[in-house]
Amino acid sequence: MTDAATDDFKISNLFSLEGKTALVTGGSSGLGLIMAKGLLLNGARVMIASRKKEKCDLALEKLQQYGDCSAMAADVTDAGDRAALVSAVESTFGSLCILINNAGANWGAEIEDYPDTGFAKVMNTNLNAVFSMTRDFLPLLEKAASAEDPARVINIGSMDGIHVPIVQRVPTFAYSASKAALHHLTRTLAVDLAPKNITVNAVAPGFFESRMTDYVFEHFKADIEDDCPLHRVGRPEEMVGIITYLASRAGAYTNGTVIPVDGGTSISKGRRPWTE
Ligand SMILES: NC(=O)c1ccc[n+]([C@@H]2O[C@H](COP(=O)([O-])OP(=O)(O)OC[C@H]3O[C@@H](n4cnc5c(N)ncnc54)[C@H](OP(=O)(O)O)[C@@H]3O)[C@@H](O)[C@H]2O)c1
């Protein structure tokens, strides 16, 4: 074994994102903001994008202390906004090593009251836009990609795309369907884009604190924890850990996977006491 190979095994080298460029959609809050911070702290240059300019500006103020970050207001469901985002990434970075499709939406209502518009909005944001973003960014991803170091697409799915969500109380028909479809789209894209040296994986988080989970955390935190074999919600660094793996040299051979980061919630049926 050569010394070079030994150095290759060191965490500082294996998991480094030094010199990489990344775009995080929905990077202005919640998990997107956490992942953007993690990417910056591990050496990547980052652009975040979300619909509201004020939110982007506020997030940028927080993120700039950690590294080279920029922000742009863009709606991932809008073709014109996506084209503008492609131009901004091209002029800022020249190419794109890591695309994190994280922007997401949810809609909860009983079936009798569940509107078509709500269903379509969730599907458009969580599924259709991920496909469109990946397609529109292909030229910039290909430019950064090599057989040695593929470009990475990381889709943020959900454990609710693996199991039927029960803790939320209010049904979220479109959300769980959109995330299940996103997991399968991830596999299809992984096979299709591998010849271009682009890997595609999904992370399926369990419950993490964010604006999206504010309400359920306030009302059902105990049930959420009880439903998880580890009896807790996720910690921010646990999202940073998985995306750092997927985006770095360590994850270069991982392709077409859906990785749950949920404390085992999606494979359990909740904690139940033994009865006679
Ligand atoms: N938190 C959890 O427990 C959890 C669990 C499983 C999966 N997830 C997934 O994680 C992702 C992030 O969610 P979060 O919990 O961090 O929620 P969040 O705090 O509500 O963040 C959602 C982000 O997406 C942006 N966004 C929404 N629609 C957009 C659009 N059409 N175009 C561009 N940006 C858009 C929002 O900003 P603007 O309002 O400015 O657009 C915001 O920055 C989602 O895909 C969600 O499904 C979260």
Task: Describe it.
The structure is a single chain. This protein is an alpha/beta fold and 276 residues long. The protein has one domain (18-267): Rossmann fold (3-Layer(aba) Sandwich), CATH 3.40.50. 45% of the residues lie in helices and 14% in strands. The protein has helices at residues 3-8, 11-14, 30-41, 53-63, 79-93, 116-136, 138-144, 173-193, 214-227, 236-247; strands at residues 21-25, 45-50, 69-73, 98-101, 151-156, 198-205, 258-261. It has a seven-stranded parallel sheet, with helices on both faces. Helix 8 (173-193) links the parallel strand 5 and strand 6. Helix 3 (30-41) crosses helix 10 and helix 6 runs parallel beside helix 8. The longest helix is centred in the middle third of the chain and has 21 residues, at 116-136. The chain starts with a helix and ends in a 15-residue tail after the last strand. The mean pLDDT is 95. Bound molecules: NADP nicotinamide-adenine-dinucleotide phosphate (NAP). NADP nicotinamide-adenine-dinucleotide phosphate binds at residues 25-26, 28-32, 50-52, 55, 75-77, 102-105, 125, 156, 158, 205, 207-208, 210-213.
Short précis:
This protein has 276 residues and is an alpha/beta fold.
The H/E string reads HHEHEHEHEHHEHEHHE
Global Rg: 19 Å
What's the CATH first level?
A: Alpha Beta
Compute the number of structural domains. 1
Q: Tell me the distance between the termini.
A: 58 Å
Structural class: alpha/beta
Which keywords apply here?
276 residues, alpha/beta, Rossmann fold, seven-stranded parallel beta sheet, 10 helices, globular, binds NADP nicotinamide-adenine-dinucleotide phosphate
